[in-house]
């Protein structure tokens, strides 16, 4: 007995996440978790409290030297983060 309305479980989950508006939040969490891979372990050790709100990534930086370095490569970081997400999710980064 074959059912004609079968769907793959992955598609069902993606549709559910999209319907519940959770897909964007999951991408945001994924980007924050990839921060260390993007900037390297030495820089990641000097940053914390990363979060995304309204398309802006907020990063608390404990070193002024690291903060200056990150500010110089801000545009490249935005581009790399958006490429990882597969869409334009980040339009600015604020270093505190």
3D structure, described in words:
The chain is an alpha+beta fold and 96 residues long. The chain has helices at 9-19, 23-33, 35-39, 41-45, 64-72, 74-85, and strands spanning 47-53, 56-61, 92-95. Strands 1-2-3 form a 3-stranded mixed β-sheet. The mean pLDDT is 84.
Q: At CATH's second level, what is the architecture?
A: 2-Layer Sandwich
Shape: elongated
| Strands, count | 3
> Main sheet, how many strands, which sense, barrel?
3 strands, mixed
Total domains, how many?
Answer: 1
The helix/strand order is: HHHHEEHHE
Strand content: 15-25%
Biggest sheet, strands in spatial order? 1-2-3
Low-confidence stretches: none
Name of the CATH class:
Alpha Beta
Gyration radius, in Å: 17 Å
Q: Average pLDDT across residues?
A: 84
Name the helicity range: 55-70%
N- to C-terminal distance: 61 Å
In CATH, the topology is named Alpha-Beta Plaits
**Given the helix and strand composition, which structural class is it?**
alpha+beta
Lay out the secondary structure.
Blueprint: H1 9-19, H2 23-33, H3 35-39, H4 41-45, E1 47-53, E2 56-61, H5 64-72, H6 74-85, E3 92-95
Parallel strand pairs: 2-3
Antiparallel strand pairs: 1-2
Question: In a nutshell, what does this entry contain?
Answer:
The chain has helices at 9-19, 23-33, 35-39, 41-45, 64-72, 74-85; strands at 47-53, 56-61, 92-95.
Q: What descriptive keywords fit this protein?
A:
Alpha-Beta Plaits, single chain, 3-stranded mixed sheet, 96 residues, alpha+beta, 6 helices
């Amino acid at each position: 007995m074959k059912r004609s309305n079968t769907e793959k479980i992955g598609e069902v989950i993606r549709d559910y996440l999209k319907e519940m508006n959770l897909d964007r939040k999951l991408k945001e969490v994924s980007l924050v978790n990839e921060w260390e891979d993007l900037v390297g372990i030495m820089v990641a050790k000097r940053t914390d409290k990363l979060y995304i709100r309204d398309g802006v990534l907020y990063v608390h930086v404990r070193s002024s030297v690291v903060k200056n370095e990150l500010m110089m490569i801000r545009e490249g970081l935005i581009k790399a983060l958006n490429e990882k997400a597969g869409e334009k999710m980040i339009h600015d980064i604020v270093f505190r």
